[in-house]
Amino acid sequence: MSQQPPAMPTHLRGALDLSALKRPAGQPGPQSQPGQAGQPAQPGQAGQQSAQGGPAGSWVLDNASQGDLQQLIQLSSRVPVLVHLAAPSNPASQQIDDLVAPAVDARGGQLILARVDAEADPQVLQVFGLAAGPAVVAVLAGQPIPVLNQAVPADQLEQLLDELLAAAAQNGVSGTVPPLAPAREYGQGAVGAAGHDVPAAPALPPLHQEAQDALEAGQYEAAEGAYRRALAENPADAEAKVGLSRAGLFARTAAMDSNAVRERGATEPDEAQAQIDVADLDVLGGHVEDAFNRLVRFIAGHPGQERNTVREHLVDLYTVVGDQDPRTSASRKALAMALF
């Protein structure tokens, strides 16, 4: 590539330390939010296709906050996390977005892209050891790697992403994650990761569009309302059912303190809501199997009304992840064994 960011300082070549980034009280985690997901569109099986044939969601999180970064970096042990340290005043920053975002989505959950406004929050640049943006840094298992600081030809980007994924696999980072955000419209003629045109997305039904707009604005209750109205008009609307479950997940987790939730989950293993809350965070963060296994174990060991409450919640998470996801199929079998 013709131009790369300066070499990463020696002290940043180890695990990335985001401890200096303090999330303001009450600030939500990764959802834009959505990416997924702000958010997100349908966290489901990575690479899952919607009924229209396009991606079920996006793996690009716009306007990521410091709190989002703290949580997304945790995902770098599962998939590479690309961080665009954006400089909105520099036209190159938008060019990078236009190039990298569709390329990441074309990989269907093998990568995540988070965009941070480094002009508004220069402290983030300091964490990554850079003086200015724009720049894209990849994080693998907590370790930052400079990637690029200007747009490049699509074939070069494709090669770069191939190399990044190969390096990730060699270091045991080869998973996939559900979408973080609603599916993005790249428009006719947009260029994807392999240089192919990305077709413009078909228009959504009005209530679905209303819900997606609300999700992108972080207005999860409004999104839930729009999906409920869509289901009232057509109870067989499968995408509205998925959307309602998805919006509910974002609404429940938006204000969660992840550390407090996980601590409670560890200290109160017999408390249904404590286990449900951890499972929600796990699904949102891509740890789908952990979430499913946690709730199945609870169901197996707790007869009575609590069992039914957790079972219903688990079924709702199956909807979020998607019935076609093999993790859902495996968990349904485990749930049947736990119940009978």
> Which class of secondary structure composition applies to the elements?
alpha/beta
Tally of separate domains: 3
Q: What's the overall average pLDDT, rounded?
A: 76
Which spans of ≥5 residues are poorly predicted at pLDDT below 50? 1-55, 188-202
Sheet with the most strands: spatial strand order: 1-3-2-4-5
The CATH topology of the largest domain is what?
Answer: Glutaredoxin
**CATH superfamily placement of the largest domain:** Glutaredoxin
Q: What is the helix/strand order?
A: EHEHEHEEHEEHHHHHHHH
User: How helix-rich are the residues, as a percent range?
Assistant: 40-55%
Task: Give the overall shape.
Answer: globular
CA-based gyration radius: 20 Å
- Count of extended strands: 7
Largest β-sheet summary: 5 strands, mixed
Tally the helices.
12
Give me the CATH architecture of the largest domain, please.
3-Layer(aba) Sandwich
Q: Which CATH top level class of the largest domain fits? A: Alpha Beta
Distance between the termini: 59 Å
Region (Disordered): 1-62
InterPro entries: Thioredoxin-like_sf, TPR-like_helical_dom_sf
Protein name: Putative thioredoxin
Pfam families: TPR_20
